[in-house]
């Protein structure tokens, strides 16, 4: 591991107020040190690197010009906020990023007064900033509100809803569009092409014209400084027609790595802007770190790495990753059925749909960060007889819930929902945990809701979903590796609403939904060893429930435990409802539903999070003993 870099100037800046003493001419040196510090920190922790590297100058310039935290600075998504964290009193903890007990990888209100709004899901910054700007107006506060939003985040409908509202309200809001021509993957869509055209220079305004415009809008003090910036930027200024039509004053594109361009523009906007302003800043994702600049993904998200070579640590896998199994199975099924199409919302590699795009490019659609649209777009495809697999992370599907209800479920359209990142995801923490999908999908009439217990089951579920044309169907699976089971050459079509008994016992029944099955089997070993003969079943379906299986487990066991990687209201709640309605708990059956706890679980390794949640081998054993009113004395590995 390399030594931490020398950072003499950065050492003088603990909080933004210290920046005021740094002369403008020394800011490039500060930027160099800040970059080195961030690279060193992320090389030790892993995390989001490319986005932060791209906004080093922008972050310094904003903190230099504005008076944070009185002025509100909001980063969209928040994955680019590491330089901001270093400059806002958190440098001493920067090497704890995303670790258990450490700094969050995103902005977080509870973490710092310099984080006025928490984020992690994209495209919320303009709405939140507008709310703050209006609040300042209402309470007579004189403060600036700045929202920094990326070109990728600009593809979501919510950003336009906010622009639309801000333009109409004429609120004093500063939006900085950080255009690095990248999302996680290269950005898609007409808006991205439009921004590229603006940045390409074809529609640049001459600086004289800009000077006139700015003078008219911002006042007399503006034009000389702006003109200088514009000269340095080789005429990087344009009319920004779309944003102007929406009521924004549009400045840019300007060079987001040049303090000579950033500082005068920000100062003039600070001192003179009256209504909503959009500053279009062009940056380079991964800037200043050659391995990141050279990488296709610009080191969007990295493992720990070697600073000199950029080589990332790779743990040797014990089993294939669920995402890879899903992707391969989907490509296989798509080879058999030309009606199968894939939809991703800006996560081609994260969901594995990049594999489908290689095999069947014309049947794979990256719609941008637009989950709501992705769901209804898939519904439209299904309405025309196609078989869309709308592959989203559990946490991001939340954004498309009304579309799932209104456009898919009510119409009974056979959209397939592969739901990745089910359960805890680890370092991304509570914003990215896949906790609620079973609860919110299993509540919907006509929905088939599955969870894979292992990677072979996932393969079966891909085939089952492909074959299911009677209505919507979902299947969830976690981040990370499978358990190493033998894989079938092709998935089987599962009987809808039928679970399976994996191990037969007689006193205790563990009914698992999802990948806690492995821990249930381990817990069963301990329980058997303690004289409690244990049945383990894999429910496969939360909807429709396997009524016969549940009846059999309820009637022939003293204890019934349901186990899932989801919130209350999901699988266990449906089982309890059924047991109650059927009168199966009227005669002493001891039922305990095990779900994710009712807290926002902090980031840690997933195993540690499950242990804390009590959803591991030891927790399952303890729950059984508690149900029986016994103490778990000397129980195997669980004790
Ligand atoms: C609603 C939502 N969908 C998907 C994501 C995953 N995601 C995180 S960052 C990102 C790309 C953002 O691109 P951009 O805003 O341009 O920022 P950059 O990384 O280029 O700086 C995506 C798709 C998310 N955070 N939120
Ligand atoms: C910031 C963001 O939302 C994504 O970059 C996310 O961190 C990706 O997570 P995975 O690593 O699980 O794909
Ligand atoms: Mg971008």
UniProtKB/TrEMBL annotation:
Binds 1 Mg(2+) ion per subunit. Mg(2+) binds at residues 151, 180. It catalyses: D-glyceraldehyde 3-phosphate + pyruvate + H(+) = 1-deoxy-D-xylulose 5-phosphate + CO2. Thiamine diphosphate binds at residues 79, 120-122, 152-153, 180, 289, 371. Residues 320-485 form the Transketolase-like pyrimidine-binding domain. This is 1-deoxy-D-xylulose-5-phosphate synthase. Transmembrane segments: none annotated. Its cofactor is Mg(2+); thiamine diphosphate. Belongs to the transketolase family. DXPS subfamily. Catalyzes the acyloin condensation reaction between C atoms 2 and 3 of pyruvate and glyceraldehyde 3-phosphate to yield 1-deoxy-D-xylulose-5-phosphate (DXP). Pathway: Metabolic intermediate biosynthesis; 1-deoxy-D-xylulose 5-phosphate biosynthesis; 1-deoxy-D-xylulose 5-phosphate from D-glyceraldehyde 3-phosphate and pyruvate: step 1/1. Keywords: Isoprene biosynthesis, Magnesium, Metal-binding, Thiamine biosynthesis, Thiamine pyrophosphate, Transferase. HAMAP family: DXP_synth (MF_00315).
């Amino acid at each position: 591991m390399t030594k931490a870099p020398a950072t003499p100037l950065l050492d003088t800046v603990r909080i933004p107020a210290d920046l005021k003493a740094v002369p403008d001419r020394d800011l490039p040196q500060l930027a160099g040190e800040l970059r080195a510090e961030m690279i060193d920190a992320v090389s030790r922790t892993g995390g989001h690197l490319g986005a932060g590297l791209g906004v080093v100058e922008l972050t310094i310039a904003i903190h230099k010009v504005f008076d944070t935290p009185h002025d509100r600075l909001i980063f969209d998504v928040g994955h680019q906020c590491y330089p901001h964290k270093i400059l806002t009193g958190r440098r001493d903890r920067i090497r704890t990023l995303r670790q258990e007990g450490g700094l969050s990888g995103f902005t977080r209100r509870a973490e710092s007064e310099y984080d006025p709004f928490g984020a992690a899901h994209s495209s919320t910054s303009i709405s939140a900033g507008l709310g703050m700007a209006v609040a300042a107006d209402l309470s007579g506060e004189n403060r600036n509100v700045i929202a920094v939003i990326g070109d990728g985040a600009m593809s979501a409908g919510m950003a336009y809803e906010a622009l639309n509202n801000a333009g109409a309200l004429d609120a004093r809001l500063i939006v900085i569009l950080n255009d690095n021509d990248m999302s996680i993957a290269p950005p898609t869509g007409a808006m991205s092409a439009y921004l590229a055209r603006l940045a390409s220079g074809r529609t640049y305004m001459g600086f004289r014209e800009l000077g006139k415009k700015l003078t008219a809008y911002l006042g007399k003090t503006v034009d000389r400084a702006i003109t200088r910036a514009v000269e340095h930027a080789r005429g990087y200024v344009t009319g920004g027609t779309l944003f102007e039509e929406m009521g924004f004053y549009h400045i840019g594109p300007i060079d987001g790595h040049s303090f000579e361009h950033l500082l005068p523009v920000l100062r003039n906007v600070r001192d003179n802007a009256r209504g909503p302003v959009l500053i279009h800043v062009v940056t380079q994702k991964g800037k200043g770190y050659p391995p990141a600049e050279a990488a296709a993904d610009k080191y969007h998200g990295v493992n720990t790495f070697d600073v000199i070579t950029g080589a990332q640590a790779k743990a040797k896998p014990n089993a294939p990753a669920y995402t890879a199994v899903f992707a391969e199975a989907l490509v296989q099924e798509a080879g058999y059925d030309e009606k199968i199409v894939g939809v991703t919302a800006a996560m081609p590699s994260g969901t594995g749909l990049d594999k489908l795009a290689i095999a069947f490019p014309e049947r794979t659609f990256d719609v941008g960060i637009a989950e709501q649209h992705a769901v209804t777009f898939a519904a439209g495809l299904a309405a025309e007889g196609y078989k869309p697999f709308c592959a989203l992370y559990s946490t991001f599907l939340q954004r498309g819930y009304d579309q799932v209800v209104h456009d898919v479920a009510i119409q009974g359209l056979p959209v397939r929902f592969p739901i990745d990142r089910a359960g805890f995801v680890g370092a991304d923490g509570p914003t990215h945990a896949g906790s609620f999908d079973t609860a919110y999908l299993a509540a919907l009439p006509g929905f088939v809701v599955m969870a894979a217990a292992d990677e072979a089951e996932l393969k079966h579920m891909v085939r089952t979903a492909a074959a299911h044309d009677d209505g919507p169907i979902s299947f969830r699976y976690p981040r990370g590796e499978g358990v190493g089971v033998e894989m079938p050459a092709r998935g089987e079509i599962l009987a809808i609403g039928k679970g399976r008994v994996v191990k037969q016992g007689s006193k205790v029944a563990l009914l698992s939904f999802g990948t806690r099955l492995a821990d249930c089997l381990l817990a069963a070993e301990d329980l058997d060893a303690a004289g409690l003969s244990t049945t383990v079943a894999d429910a496969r379906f939360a909807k429709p429930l396997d009524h016969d299986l549940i009846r059999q487990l309820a009637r022939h066991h003293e204890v019934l435990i349901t186990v899932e990687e989801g919130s209350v209201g999901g699988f266990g709640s449906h089982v309890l409802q059924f047991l109650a309605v059927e009168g199966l708990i009227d005669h002493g059956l001891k039922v305990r539903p095990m779900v994710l706890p009712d807290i926002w679980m902090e980031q840690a390794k997933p195993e540690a999070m499950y242990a804390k949640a009590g959803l591991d081998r030891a927790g399952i054993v303890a729950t059984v003993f508690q149900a029986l009113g016994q103490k778990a004395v000397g129980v195997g590995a669980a004790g």
